[in-house]
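Need tokens for this chain, all 248 residues.
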Amino acid sequence: MSNCQSSETNLPKHVAIIMDGNGRWAKSRGKTRVAGHKVGVESVRATVTRARELGIEALTLFAFSSENWQRPEQEVSVLMDLFMFVLTREVKRLHKHGIRFQLIGDISGFSAKLQEKIKQAEQLTSANQGMVLSVAANYGGRWDITHACQNIAQKVANGELSADQITEQLINQETSTAILPELDLLIRTGGDYRISNFLLWQAAYAEFYFTETLWPDFNEDAFEAAVSSFGQRERRFGQTGEQVQQKN
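Here are the structure tokens for all 248 residues:
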């Protein structure tokens, strides 16, 4: 048992994860990239379970970026099938544990069948009061900001809003994560040190945690290590360390 629960004040409210390394994990074992994605589903289940047990309010997983359409057609096709399968199989489990599911991203790029499955999962869990699990699919941080700006521009055009009423808070309310707490911790597995167009607006003051662990090997202990690391950091938000300590 980790000591994470004993320091709830240092627990991140919102954790996001770039789940990287499925393909490399599979290649190193002489398997197809698709096999890595399938094994990665088990890491998703373990992470969601542990995050819920720890009392984290929101978990956001980067499943499929808007740039991933450029990958080999067969891999994209299998990913879509896997997404459909996991949604069908897992949504009842999420609902049982009071988890609210939402998909963030441009769902218009998906098949009508997958769009319907997404809507059904969101509707089934919409009243749940537990952790919010957001899956980012066909998502990009620049798309998110652009979409928010388009919504605001339309309100200005309709006379509902004037330009000087546009604030950071207003833009935030138009992003796809509007219902979530501020992003506290951004984890990336797989050894790369970049955020790959993920939650650009939301990551302004997030703590970053990079690990060499490939996603299929990322288990509950690895997740707790990331959360524990967050708890040891001093978050200053532009202030000095002395100012932060005085507040505490």
